[in-house]
Amino acid sequence: MITWKKILIGFSLITFLGASVGYYLYNKKPVDVRTLQPDLSISANSLIAAFNSDETAANVKYLDKVIAVKGIISDIKIDSSTGQASVILESGDPMSAVTCSFYNDEIGAVQKLSKGTVVVIKGKCTGKLMDVVLNNCSIVK
Questions:
Q1: Would you state the pLDDT for residue 122?
Q2: Which of 21, 38, 76, 81 is the most exposed place for a label (fewest CB within 10 A)?
Q3: CA–CA separation, 29 vs 76, rounded Å?
Q4: Helix/strand/coil (H/E/C) assignment for every residue in 68-105
C-alpha cells in the first residue's frame, strides 16, 4: 500500500512540474531584438550576393541570427492603418533587395529616414524569398 502512495505522489509531482514548465513556455514573450547585440555585420550588397551564390550556405550562416545590415535606402513603406513600417535597402541586384520590417513602435524613427541615405539596420534574418527579409528591426545609425 505504501508503494502505491509513493508512485501516486511521484506521478503527481512529475505532472505538476511538466504542467508548470509548459505554462511558462506558452506564456514566455519573444526576445526583443533591439536589446541584443548583432551576431554579424554586413553590407546589403554582400548579403544579397551570399544568398544568390549559395542559398544553403547563406541560410546556415544568417538564418535566425541577429544581423546589422548597412545599405542605401531605396524605399520606405509605412502603413498608417496597421502601424507597420518597412525599409527596402538597395543591393546592387535589380531582382533582389533587403526588406526590413520594423516593430510597430519604431514608426517614428522610420519616418525620419529618407531615400538615398546610408543606414545601418539591425534585425533577425528570416531568409530569402525574392528579397532577403529581416524582421523585428531597429535603426542602429
A1: 92
A2: 81
A3: 28
A4: EEEEEEEEEEEECCCCEEEEEECCCCCCCCEEEEECHH
